[in-house]
Amino acid sequence: QVEAPGSYQQDPWAMTDEEKLQAVPLIHKEGNELYRQGKGQEAAAKYYDAIACLKNLQMKEQPGSPDWIELDQKITPLLLNYCQCKLQCEEYYEVLDHCSSILNKYEDNVKAYFKRGKAHAAVWNVAEAQADFAKVLALDPSLRPIVSKELRSLEARLREKDAEDKIRFKGIFSQ
């Protein structure tokens, strides 16, 4: 198959370290474009590829060294974008894992708290969701309108679930 110049993308495993570093911003941009088009799964795959390139480079560095930290700081926004795609695809436990790993290293990452809060809310971890949203407000009070909307949505879902449970379990103990 003949491909147009510039359209061929080499697999990360076949790239040199320099090619990987040059490819990451391009792959990131492709992921952003796919996300804007509403193609969450495809965008997630692009972000994953970019993360893989950087992780491969990071493995060659001493953990905690300036180069390792610099690569880690490039991985974090890609991982947050990946998590946003996973939220869209309703893959909440993956979001919980990745956001928690980011927060273990960067305790003040507002986006990681927000995305983790949304994932906790989606899987009915109410106390954890509320704690994460409270942390978002503590770190960035300007996000109050967005956080309030998420908390109202969670409360509405809880009321709906309680109403369903009352109907489902009505009379179960009176027999």
Note down, in words, how this protein is organized.
With 175 residues, this protein is mostly helical. It folds into two domains: 12-89, Alpha Horseshoe (Serine Threonine Protein Phosphatase 5, Tetratricopeptide repeat), CATH 1.25.40; 110-174, Tetratricopeptide repeat domain (Serine Threonine Protein Phosphatase 5, Tetratricopeptide repeat, Alpha Horseshoe), CATH 1.25.40.10. The chain is built from seven helices and no strands. The longest helix is centred in the last third of the chain and has 26 residues, at 144-169. The relative contact order is 0.07.
Topology:
Elements: H1 17-36, H2 40-58, H3 66-88, H4 92-105, H5 110-122, H6 126-139, H7 144-169
Helix pairs in contact: 1-2, 2-3, 3-4, 3-5, 4-5, 5-6, 6-7
